[in-house]
Amino acid sequence: MDGFVPVSENLSMMGSHNIFGTNSQISENDTSSQHTAEVDGSSQINRCMAALEHSTIKVPYEVLNRKFRTAQKVLEREVSAVAACTSEMQAALSGSPMPRPQQLTQMIRGVMSQVSSLKRKAREAVAGEVECARAVRRRIEHLDQAGKGSAAARAAWESTRIDRLITDFLLREGCYRTAKKLVELRNIKSLTNLGLFENAYEVEQSLERRDVSKCLAWCHENKTKLKKLNSSLEFNIRIQEFIDMIKRNERMSAVWHARKYFSAQDCKQLPSIPQCMALLAFPADTKIPEYQVLLSDSRWQDLIQQFRDENLRLYHLSLQATFTVVVQAGLSALKTPQCYKSNKESFNPDCPVCVPTLNSLAKELPYAHCSQSRLVCFLSGETMNENNLPLMLPNGYVYGSNALEAQAAANNGEVFCPRSETKFQLSDAQKVFVM
Amino acid sequence: MATDPRIPVRNEIDKVLDKFSTYETTTLSSLDNVEAKLKELLELVENAMPMDDDSSNLDEALDSEESEAPLLSSEQVSNIMATLAEVKSVSSSVSAKHRELHSFVSKIGKCIDKNFETSYDFMTHQTAFLRDETRPRLYEIICNHLCREGLQSTADQLMEDSNMNINSEFMTKFRDVNAIVVALRNGDLQPAMKWALEHSEKLKEKTSSLEFKLHRLAFISLVAGGAQNVTAAIEYARDHFTPFIPNHQSAIQHVMGSLVFMRTGLQGTPYSGLLQTSQWDDLIRTFTKDACTIMGLSMQCPLAVCISAGCTALPVLLNINQALTGSQVHNMWSAKEELPIEIALGKNNYYHSIFSCPIMRQQSTESNPPMRLICGHVISKDALTKLTNANNKRSQSPPRVKCPYCPVEQTPQEPQQIIF
């Protein structure tokens, strides 16, 4: 565990921003749950589950499915081996001459060893499949913990959820090592899909080094599924190899390569072939834009991105990370016009949308919808209502009566407007009625 | 009432586990039976063989006995064939029964797809949220989050992995704050005191109680040290408490009272509360709050707050998206200025005032600010314009506006723009 101790604890939310450091003992001691999502009603939890956790469960299921298919193939292979030597023995027994005892014992031992091999492989396969099924169940069991237990337990579950979302995002972005570190430090290996992306990471790294062998191996491994998805990845790799040969001026090899790999493609891929073949006629430093594009190094990045997308599709994962979706939804739900005022006077450092980085990210997102006014005192963060009447100072700025009265009491009836940096008398403040 | 999506999936999984267990106990164990039978067969054949040490002689002997009666009776042969047939059928059932399990396995997948949301298509925008220019910002936010969570090395790894120019201003600021907090957790007041001295003016501006609390805790540590610290404690109080008397008089009086019990110790006295670790926790909270305020940082991680809000908002949005499908106005995400539905995030997430005009039923914006009529009632500027125009139609000169809530009238120039 890192030496740094977390400064902000999830448990105690400090309440809204408090500029003047007025008596905030109340908000500091308020440990009542601030997360409305999981606390009120299991219906809310159910909706949350359905909305967010599809990939959490689906991925281990896909692993189970793959394991099943491989197991089925193994079993069928073993069964046909048993059938073969059994048939052989049956044929020998019904033919003439009758086999000698030694041959018989040999054949029986042969059948026995095949049967025992079948037995062993079958048990192994089932053990593997059961373990996969249990892994799916464990994920559900983790989800079952949502909203249960003490406030600390609930906060820990939500903190884990954030870690899961971030890990998934990082893995999809190719930041495998970061994801691995996070998973290890937080001990959430069984809840994330690290293993799935480990192989992908190796392929990506090899592509970064312009080495296509691992990617081709991956394509071969997943041939049937990729075909079903109409994947053009392998073809694009062959094209890239062709282009690289031209770059190295190995034009003869390029021609052989093309003859070997380009003729067997289906109609969909055909349009790109003539253009690539034409590349043979041009030097590697050609200035013609259409061919410069083909020769550009950025094609490697495109290959990596295509590989990433196909890997996701292979496991039936959505192309958008849940993390980005949740962040957008959250920003939108928090976004108010006050966060985007041109003079930034309503800047509240506790408001996530006011934080400069998030502010620019949320610029194009919809605002939150609000049907009823809700007023917050800029000085204290308290709600302004009948217990804390909103008062307007002569310059139009409104603050809560509690905060203003406290100031006036300490300063001979004088109050200070922080946004206009002007002093006023409390007696000059006028009441404001908001329906 | 939304149904729990976890239950049906769990049921399907349990079904599959059950099926696999049955498969193991019936089909696979039938293989054991078959193995046993084969063993019997082997013994049978071996017993039927003539016992002879010299195997080469045996071959010759057998060869010469070609025309002799066969080693095995026809009954034995048919037994062997029967066993072999059983071997075949049992082993083929191993793969056949396994294949049957597939429908149960794939049911799990179908159940998952049915009960959990698979796509977020509604959240499409003309410009993608995650694109080359926004990526570094998103990574920065994650970095900062990791930093706040005490995962400094992971944040560094991300900066390395991402190959991007990530602004680490926050991380540097936060590192300093964190170092002081770590010291406080170890009972070391010095770094905090040094920081408080450096920022003394700003702390005073914000009427913060941090400096007093630091000195108080130092004083208490002396008192708790026992009677030998009496002089030191009193001197400390004299040197450091004086500037705080105007604001913290009663607190000072209370803590000075603890001197009485220095010899016997504070346990069991009215001052035992001063020794508790909660004093330190409170100090850490105060320091964190003040440090964050002065540096313009938020106290809670903004990413965590955002994600929490998103987890509440997303189900609501998915729900409304379903309801909107089929209607003309489908794309709620891009074109609209506001979300089509209100999302209740709870009081703790009210960071700004929102004024919703009761007449126009719209949120106030910079171009449509709230206006306070001279009677004190507030309506939006657009509403004011609307009411003015409506009144003008009655050709009154000069134009007067009547408040919608009370009989007070005024000219259109009198209402004042307010800022909440």
From TrEMBL, chain A:
Main location, first listed in the record: cytoplasm
Compartments, as annotated in UniProt: Cytoplasm
Gene Ontology terms: biological process: proteasome-mediated ubiquitin-dependent protein catabolic process
Residue stretches making up the RING-Gid-type domain: 351-420
One term of GO molecular function: ubiquitin protein ligase activity
Pfam family, one: CTLH
UniProt superkingdom: Eukaryota
Keyword line: Cytoplasm, Metal-binding, Transferase, Zinc, Zinc-finger
CDD domains hit by this protein: RING-Ubox_Emp (cd16659)
GO cellular component labels: cytoplasm; GID complex; nucleus
Domain CTLH, residue spans: 197-253
Annotated zinc fingers (RING-Gid-type), start-end: 351-420
Descriptive protein name: E3 ubiquitin-protein transferase MAEA isoform X1
Organism expressing this protein natively: Hyalella azteca (Amphipod)
From TrEMBL, chain B:
CTLH domain boundaries: 173-230
Domain of life: Eukaryota
Domain called RING-Gid-type: residue spans: 357-406
Record region (Disordered): 50-72
Zinc finger (RING-Gid-type): 357-406
Keywords annotated in UniProt: Cytoplasm, Metal-binding, Transferase, Zinc, Zinc-finger
InterPro entries for the chain: CRA_dom (IPR013144), CTLH/CRA (IPR024964), CTLH_C (IPR006595), Fyv10_fam (IPR045098), LisH (IPR006594), ZF_RING_GID (IPR044063)
Coiled coil (UniProt feature): none
SMART domains: CRA (SM00757), CTLH (SM00668)
Compositional bias (Acidic residues): 51-68
PROSITE patterns named in the record: CTLH, LISH, ZF_RING_GID
One BP term from GO: proteasome-mediated ubiquitin-dependent protein catabolic process
Cell compartments where the protein resides: Cytoplasm
Gene Ontology terms, MF aspect: ubiquitin protein ligase activity; zinc ion binding
Gene Ontology CC terms: cytoplasm; GID complex; nucleus
Record's protein name: E3 ubiquitin-protein transferase RMND5B isoform X2
Native organism taxonomy: Eukaryota, Metazoa, Ecdysozoa, Arthropoda, Crustacea
